[in-house]
Design a protein that fits this description.
Layout (H helix, E strand, L loop, with lengths): L14 H6 L6 H22 L5 E5 L9 H15 L3 E4 L5 H11 L4 E6 L13 E5 L2 H10 L1 E6 L4 H15 L8 E4 L1 H18 L4 H4 L2 E4 L2 H16 L20
Parallel strand pairs: 1-2, 1-5, 2-3, 3-4, 5-6, 6-7
Helix pairs in contact: 3-4, 3-9
Length: 254
């Protein structure tokens, strides 16, 4: 990233969120926080209810426009849009921006679930609609809830957290067997080898669960594969098409 590198520990996050995660608090504070979390969920549901069939793309915020991974993410976003998907990302810079940019340039819809952070994260300029969350766990629900498939480009702790979250949800039957595709084999190979060798060998992960994670260098192969799966399982629809309710102030337009 350009300019002085800022370490996470040098900049405090939202004080009320830090306090919430610091153990038991007075009952009034806990109740207020629970209500705010509920409102945050409702805001997300209302904002994303009509975004259409999505594919969520994960990836680092730290790769600049001149990096090959940025070009790769931009190609992924464009191909997803041409296949008829809405591209959803974490809404920030780097590879998230690249995927949103590719979707926008290809004439598709581009959605961002942004997070309030002390450094790095501001909505990128290629979003048709975005919503900013205070809590990671609310944001993670939104990134999963509206998507048919998940593509992970190279990233750090956040990207790894999201990949493991999806894998765990599938392993435990909380979501159906959506495709999870890791794009960039040189970057992801050690991770996949660790899962398929160490974890499977130790018996902590079943072989069938490890096999759900696919790896490729080809955006074309990634998008073609998940498109076929989406067509077979869902016919590119969640089910009966939901209509906006004007009494609730809803609109299908971004």
């Amino acid at each position: 990233m350009p300019g002085k590198k800022v370490h996470w520990q040098e900049s405090a996050g939202p004080p009320e969120v830090r306090r919430f995660l610091r153990g038991p608090q007075p009952r009034g504070f806990e109740l207020g926080r629970a209500l705010r979390i509920a409102v945050e969920f409702l805001r997300g549901f209302r904002a994303l209810h009509f975004v259409g069939p999505c594919v969520t793309v994960f990836g680092s915020a730290r790769f600049a426009e001149d990096h090959p991974y940025y070009t790769l993410a931009r190609d992924v976003g464009a191909r997803l849009a041409k296949a008829g998907f809405t591209v959803m990302t974490g809404g920030g810079p780097g590879l998230m921006e690249a995927a949103n940019r590719g979707a926008r340039e290809a004439g598709g819809r581009s959605i961002g679930c942004n997070i309030e952070l002390p450094v790095e994260q501001k909505p990128n300029p290629y979003l048709d609609r975005w919503i900013t969350f205070h809590h990671f766990f609310v944001r993670k629900v939104m990134l999963v809830k509206y998507s048919y498939a998940f593509i992970a480009l190279p990233g750090g702790f956040g990207t790894l957290d999201e990949v493991f979250e999806i894998a765990t949800l599938m392993q435990t039957g909380k979501v159906r067997d959506f495709p999870v595709v890791l794009v960039g084999s040189e970057f992801w190979r050690p991770f996949v080898d660790f899962v398929r060798t160490n974890l499977v060998a130790a018996g902590t992960v079943d072989r069938v669960d490890a096999a759900r994670i696919q790896v490729t260098d080809s955006p074309e192969a990634a998008v073609n594969g998940l498109t076929q799966t989406a067509l077979e399982q869902f016919g590119l629809t969640y089910g009966p098409r939901l209509r906006p309710r004007w009494l609730l102030g809803e609109s299908a337009r971004s």
